[in-house]
TrEMBL record:
Record InterPro entries: HMG_CoA_Rdtase, HMG_CoA_Rdtase_cat_sf, HMG_CoA_Rdtase_sub-bd_dom_sf
Source species, domain of life: Eukaryota
GO molecular function: hydroxymethylglutaryl-CoA reductase (NADPH) activity
TM segment ranges: 12-35, 55-75, 96-115
Keywords: Membrane, Transmembrane, Transmembrane helix
Cross-referenced SUPFAM superfamilies: Substrate-binding domain of HMG-CoA reductase
Lineage, broadest ranks: Eukaryota, Fungi, Dikarya, Ascomycota, Pezizomycotina
Organism: Aspergillus tanneri
Keyword Cell division: no
Name used for this protein in its record: Hydroxymethylglutaryl-CoA reductase (NADPH)
Gene Ontology biological process terms in this record: coenzyme A metabolic process
């Protein structure tokens, strides 16, 4: 059993840090409805080592609603973004793959910044100053 399976079986809602940012950004950038962010945010970041002792990271979404209605926006740039991603057959799978890929990259980056302490420092510097809450592992 891996971490994801164990987390799901124990009722853990999610095992990720920052996928919501991507889940909200992708539909907004292409003029789609971002209302499904909450139901898709329950993802699991899994870190495993294979027999060669190489780290393998993956992200699992039990549910990932994806909108691909090209006529869903009146703004030309948003329509163009959606058309580039999924106007042809197979577009829904490609769009969901893009969302998952971007989410995985953001999870890796965010986890690394939390682990090294730079997440808190950058928020103190650019956002809340000394008011930012320190987060240490």
């Amino acid at each position: 059993m891996n971490v994801r399976d164990g987390a799901e079986r124990n009722g853990q809602v999610r095992l990720s840090i920052n996928v919501v940012s991507i889940l909200a950004a992708m539909p907004i950038a292409s003029g789609q409805n971002a209302a499904s962010v909450a139901e898709a945010s329950g993802s699991y970041l899994t870190v495993e080592y294979d027999s060669l002792v190489e780290m393998v990271l993956s992200i699992y979404f039990p549910t990932l609603p994806v909108g691909v209605i090209v006529g869903g926006t009146a703004y030309p740039t948003k329509r163009e973004a959606l058309t580039m991603e999924c106007a042809d057959p197979g577009g829904k799978r490609r769009r969901s793959g893009m969302i998952a890929s971007f989410a995985l990259v953001l999870e890796i980056c965010t986890t690394a910044t939390v682990a090294t302490g730079t997440f808190t420092r950058s928020h103190q510097k650019y956002a809340g100053g000394e008011r930012a809450v320190l987060c240490k592992l």
